[in-house]
Design a protein that fits this description.
Blueprint lengths: L2 H14 L6 E2 L2 H5 L1 H7 L12 H10 L14 H12 L5 H16 L10 H11 L6 H8 E2 L1 E4 L2 E4 L7 H14 L2 H7 L9 H4 L15 H25 L12 H4 L10 H5 L34 H17 L3 E4 L9 E6 L15 H5 L2 E7 L9 E2 L21 E8 L5 E9 L5 E3 L35 E5 L5 E7 L2 E7 L10
Parallel strand pairs: 1-2, 4-5, 5-7, 8-14
Antiparallel strand pairs: 3-4, 6-7, 9-10, 10-11, 12-13, 13-14
Length: about 500
């Protein structure tokens, strides 16, 4: 509900510490590029034939008609509400902006309660804030990158671009060449699959792996290529800022794709989850580590070929790149960041961890960690079998609630080596917490970043669904936060140490 305030603070932070503050592009940031083209500069709205993903949905489901996918051609406020609510997944954004503008105006007018913000005011605010050159969002994108690396740390909004089509293609390559281990490493030597803007646009730009012999260098060059691609797209977007509004049939979102006709909007396509042909987009912006809320692909069923390959390729990425920690967001994980432990070897399982011990996992070498830090739905997190209660979404327009907050702290030495990874904050029930150093948790039970052992689980009657529990963190008071999820339905359980968990020598 305070988008303008937050982005202005981030830009000011970047201005004051340009070499120490690094901004990352998210899908909702990139999607705002469309506002300038699709809203125009005045009430003479550009012609708009709808967006390809809504049209594909209507055609595939026979649900709705043309009126459901084409925005208003006459009312700027109706069009903006349609774009935000139907095409950007932000149904509350229009009214949230109105409230923010009202607070700003009241402050400027010494708390005048009679302040009124019209629909026209909201539209004008979006036009100004999303201007490619002078707007806050334009400045944010111009100062942000798709990926950032510092020593053993790697940061992206989403995840590695290992989509189902990428995995299926890799499986076919491995079956054809019958060389599993070699091909898993080769995946990270040739990253053309992770540069979709080159192949689909017909570009002859070379893959960063051309004439490269090591995966580590290929990965480094791929990160550079990602950020160069983003810079070129933003430059093109800013250069066309004062062009005439698009003519009929000339709105990028109507047909999409990585088209040379719209060089600026190749980045917009990269921020989408699906391409116009219905395939998953291999992007670090929209990809996720979890499926339906849980990272169970890292504990694949021994019969699931795609999940086994996914886990192996992630291991190879860590091994080949020397990365030890990937920080990401994108997919909500309840009211606390969710760690994923990347083991040296495969951890395929039947996923029956209702009983037994995880001592075997504690002894296995760890290649690195993934930490998923999106806690934007904290206000909806549930508590299981305990005298704890989520305080809810509160008075604000968002889903985080009034009390929940999380901050991740990473310490890196002068040579780029990870020294400490921990997070602290307030859970959705108002409890303040601080975790122990993630890098020192390998000897603790249950294994943080892995399926929780049966000894630590709540009573079966209290488990909200059949999804297993995940060990999120060892807290400074000795307790362990467990989590389970089905989509956005996330539940917590606070496990306390007791005699059966204590090992003495």
């Amino acid at each position: 509900g305070s988008d303008l305030y937050v982005i202005r603070q981030l830009l000011d932070f970047k201005r004051r510490y340009p070499d120490r503050v690094h901004l990352i592009m998210g899908n909702r940031d990139i999607n705002k590029m469309r506002i300038h083209q699709e809203m125009g500069r005045d009430d003479n709205l550009p012609p708009h034939d709808g967006v390809y993903w809504l049209r594909n949905h209507v055609q595939s489901t026979n649900a709705g008609d043309e009126s459901d996918i084409v925005p208003s051609q006459t009312s700027a406020s109706e069009r903006l509400q349609f774009l935000l609510g139907r095409t950007m997944g932000s149904p509350n954004a229009f009214e949230s902006r109105r409230l923010e503008l009202q607070r700003e105006r009241q402050f400027a007018q010494d708390n005048d309660d009679n302040t009124t913000i019209s629909d026209r005011d909201v539209v004008q605010s979006y036009r100004e804030s999303c201007h490619p050159v002078t707007g806050e969002m334009g400045n944010y994108l111009a100062n942000a990158t798709l990926a950032f690396s510092l020593g053993e740390l790697f940061v992206v909004h989403g995840a590695l671009p290992l989509t189902n089509p990428v995995l299926q293609q890799q499986i076919m390559k491995e079956e054809a060449e019958s060389s599993h281990n070699q091909q898993s490493a080769d995946c990270w030597k040739d990253l053309s699959f992770a540069m979709p803007w080159t192949s689909e646009s017909g570009s002859q730009e070379a893959s960063p792996s051309s004439s490269i012999t090591t995966a580590k260098k290929a990965i480094h060059d791929w990160v550079d290529a990602l950020n160069q691609f983003a810079r070129e797209s933003i430059d093109a977007w800013q250069q066309e800022a004062d062009n005439d509004p698009p003519e009929k049939g000339s709105v990028w979102a109507t047909n999409g794709e990585y088209s040379n006709k719209f060089p600026a909007y190749k980045l917009t396509q990269y921020g989408m989850g699906w391409t116009p042909d219905g395939k998953r987009n291999p992007t670090v912006v929209y990809s996720s580590w979890a499926v339906d809320g849980m990272p169970l692909r890292f504990v694949p069923d021994s019969n699931n070929q795609e999940d086994l390959l996914f886990a192996r390729l992630v291991r190879e990425f860590f091994r080949q790149s020397n990365i030890k920690l990937i920080l990401s967001g994108h997919q909500p994980q309840g009211d606390m960041p969710l760690p994923i432990r990347i083991f040296e070897e495969s951890q395929s399982t039947s996923r029956d961890h209702s009983s037994g011990s995880d001592n075997d996992e504690q002894r296995l070498p760890v290649l690195g960690w993934v930490l998923c830090c999106d806690t934007s739905y904290s206000g909806d997190t549930n508590w299981v079998n305990q005298d704890r209660q989520n305080l809810g979404r509160g008075r604000g327009p968002g889903f985080r609630g009034d009390v929940a907050v999380a901050e991740t702290l990473v310490t890196i030495d002068s040579e780029g080596r990870l020294q400490d990874v921990r997070w602290h904050g307030v859970l959705c029930d108002g409890t303040a917490y601080e975790t122990e150093n993630l890098l020192e948790s390998s000897s603790c039970a249950p294994s943080v970043g892995y399926l929780a052992d049966g000894d630590w689980l709540p009573d079966q009657d209290g488990t909200p669904h059949e999804t297993p529990w995940w060990a999120k963190a060892h807290l400074a008071d000795g307790s362990i936060l467990l989590s389970t999820a089905k989509g956005y339905d996330v539940s917590n359980y606070m496990a306390k140490p007791h005699e059966s968990h204590v090992t003495t020598e």
